[in-house]
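User: My instructor asked us to take a sequence, write out its structure as tokens, and then describe one feature of it. I'm not sure where to start. Here is the sequence I was given:
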Amino acid sequence: MSAGADALAIRARETLGRVFGHAAFRPGQEAIVTHVAEGGDALVLMPTGAGKSLCYQVPALLRDGCAVVVSPLIALMADQVAALEQLGVRAAYLNSSLDARAAAAVERAFAAGELDLLYVAPERLLMPRCLELVERARVALFAIDEAHCVSQWGHDFRPEYLQLSVLHERWPAVPRVALTATADPLTREEIVARLALEGARVFVSSFDRPNIRYAIVDKDAGPRGDARAQLVAFIEDGHRGDAGIVYCLSRRKVDETAAWLAGKGVDAMPYHAGMETAARTATQTRFQREDGVVVVATIAFGMGIDKPDVRYVAHLDLPKSIEGYYQETGRAGRDGLPADAWMTYGLADVVQQQRLIDRSDGAEAFKRVSSAKLNALLGLAETVGCRRVRLLGYFGEASARCGNCDNCLAPPESWDATDAARKALSAIYRTGQRYGAAYVIDVLRGASNERIARQGHEQLAVFGVGANLDEAAWRAVFRQLVAQGLASVDHEAYGALRLAEPSRAVLRGEANVAMRRSAARASKGPRVRGEAATLDPGARGLFDALREWRLGEARTQGVPAYVILHDRTLAAIAQSRPSSLDALARIDGIGAAKLDRYGAAIVSLARGTTANAT
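Assistant: Let's start with the prediction itself. The structure tokens for your sequence are:
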């Protein structure tokens, strides 16, 4: 390292400690910070919760001028700015939520050099008036957050991101850093091309989130079951009173599920684009600022959520891709403590997602890529191996068996399903390839009902040949036939199953079929519930008192509680019981601004609680 680079690294560490209250950078952060601070372009791939924001916030404070942060998350900019203001950083945002007077004040401050960071929505930035404003200001760097939004193959495509190459064209000397938590090799190439980052240094951190436990269970959606009951059982098994996010595909299902959970005593609220703006804002505000709130949502909710103590993310419907699944599950456990990613999955989910692809207005190339992404997700759902190995492998990262997913905790068996597959494929063919899985299963199991009698299918050779398997087992067989490409679903014929070309070899006895046998429900094993779980009784009293104090401060200031101080910092204070400002300053998360603003109150509270305890 050169003398200049070494001096810059020293300044970066000093800024990290003085402003953010951290003694050291997390793995990978320091190299990014020094590279960008020196004026280099960068593409940063770092998992949610690993500290991407510091990778542009620290360089912004080391370089002259104001950093312009492009973010698609209008609803969250206020919280991001509030968190920086708590640290004594001069920050503001420009988006459509501001009235003309407030926006003008921010613009004046930006042009006058009175800001360190300015958050701007891409739509706003690309307006001629805003570009002219940037021209007048001194810009330290451009940070393009959620950079995967540039990908037309991705799950969060935003057309405005395609125009952000203008930043390089108009200000080639200003460094740019693009950041994302989700990008497979195809998406990375597109980010580089679309944002003109061909010369940028690429930093790829591990995509692993070892604190998240992944579990995918067969959906109990038959006439005697309800996937919502499975969800409630999951919540009751260790997550009652925890903050969580539940994803559903449709707005109607969001509303119905939120109401159903509320009826079961879960503090659940809906969120989707069909709601009034005020109602969506109220849901998001409660989720961000209160403990134990569960949001049931479409994927319209969540991107960029900073809440650190989300203990679980549940999917009642299959996402579109592994990128989407990873992005959504990554909203759990940002504080590094144990969290769960739980999903129910069935044949209807596969049918529904493939129908959306087939009926989309996208070009054939888009449909092919979308189908490939869906197939990769099905591979994750059906694997008998470690889910984390499969998940990380999708992003090009090799890993070993994790011991912290359902397949590792209760390994499923694979079984020779050749005979069952032949029976199922024969039944599809002999019933005319005109019926969905439920009807074909009834034929295989020899059900006596009016519909089968009317069609004369009681006379078929396949009628009743599958009585040895129950309905749930046959649902798994048909789901895996579709997932393995042996059968397909005709959406124009109301979900009728049809034989796919590879099925010929199976029916002729030329190919065997192995399938995943559903495992017994994996025990979660010992889990830590939040920071307080590891505290001794005396420290727990101070921790609770600190949380009450923090809640009062948050309400007074109108910001989320974690913006004041994270639970991890409160737990460290409760454990060490600092009796002076110097002792408090040594705790991770206590920077100069927070020490000055809250130090006396915290030390007083620590002394008083300690005295009461003795």
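For the description part of your assignment, you could build on this observation: The first strand starts at residue 42 and ends at 45. Try explaining in your own words what that tells you about the chain.
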